[in-house]
Amino acid sequence: MIGERIKQARFLRRMSQRDLAAKVGVSATAISKYEKGLITPGSRVLLKLARALDVRVEFFLRPALVKAIKPAFRKRQAFPRKDEKALLAHIRDWIERYLEVELILYGKPKAFEYPVGFPRPVQTWDQVEQAALDLREAWELGIDPIETLTQLLEDRGVKVGTLSSSEAFDACTFVVTAEGEIPVIVVKRGLPGDRMRFNLAHELGHLLLQPAENLSPEKVAQRFAGAFLVPKPAVLFELGQHRNVLSLYELHLLKHKYGLSMQAWIFRARDLGIISESLFRSLNRIFRARGWHREEPGDPYPPEHPVRFKRMVIQAFNEKLISKKRAEELLGRSFEDFAEEVAREHGGLTVALCDG
Q: Which of 209, 201, 204 is nearest to 119 (CA)?
């Protein structure tokens, strides 16, 4: 177990075995043997490893809650192998801390139950549209805008995380086995809110749908994302049966009502036959010519933030189930840094700590 933790921390820091060996003062062969579990580092070497890798010694002793994970990455360009290894190490570290605090509070991770009829095989685009409607019905959402998609998924038992990464990474999804199957979605941190919501819905599509061989899994997930965020009846209500023109102003207002980008609205209108293929292509050309495919005009849709994990850590600390040091280990930062983030995101709000 210690060997796996050493490798994980090394990947986190994007270090080679030779780099780590030089910092610790041992041979690269010794590092390799530590990681393979052939030999166990003594306490003095373990301290040096912790300093070199910028982790606490307790990190190496943390029990393994997650076995090997193989997320399905959605990448927009070539993803360097070193970056992928570092991202996997970050994801594994985060999800293990998430599961650990759930064990502390509830004795087991929060369960996820697939809605009746899911995962669902789909063979046509109409079936994808219907799947989105059926999921909304199962989750009692109606056809109204989803106020906070991140919170909805967290409440349903999906673990949602955001991580900083290179420009190549967009999102990934996978299932962790820990007393049952736990779906996990990780998206890139710092994205505009509408893009983040689309990525979350896209990954949800990968979790819940099983496309036929004649359908592209990516296109199915993309269609599902738009249909889940703005189902067909809502699109028809807002746009009508047929349109010859779509104005930027109208698209912008709809973006802020439903949390779906202007470009995604254009796709929805084309997919449902509301606008012609020629108008769709014309609008796409305008967006690309003016750079709006990267940054849409007007004020941006506000980002969403997963909060359940942080809230659970603070709850465990205030209920005296964990110490301040243990809370900091779970948060992956000091309380001071956490308090600064809370104040920055919530208008100066302070984090009440229970020291008594």
A: 209
- As a whole number of angstroms, the distance between CA 280 and CA 266 comes to 7
Helix-strand-coil split of the chain, %, nearest 5: 55, 10, 35
- Phi, psi of 279, deg, nearest 5: -65, -40
Where does the chain show beta strands of DSSP type E? 72-75, 120-122, 159-163, 169-177, 181-188, 209-211
Helices and strands (DSSP H and E) totals, the chain? 17, 6
Q: Structure pTM?
A: 0.83
Tokens matching residue 45: 């070497």
The tens digit of pLDDT for each residue in 34-44 reads: 888 889 888 88
What is the residue type of 45? V
pLDDT tens digits along 318-330? 899 998 888 888 8
DSSP-derived letter for residue 167 is T
Question: Do residues 179 and 109 lie in contact, with contact meaning Cβ atoms separated by under 8 Å?
Answer: yes
* Whether the Cβ atoms of residue 159 and residue 98 lie closer than 8 Å to each other: yes
On the question of pLDDT at 284 being above 90, the answer is: yes
Three-class secondary structure of residue 247 per DSSP: coil
| 43 or 12, which is more confident | 43
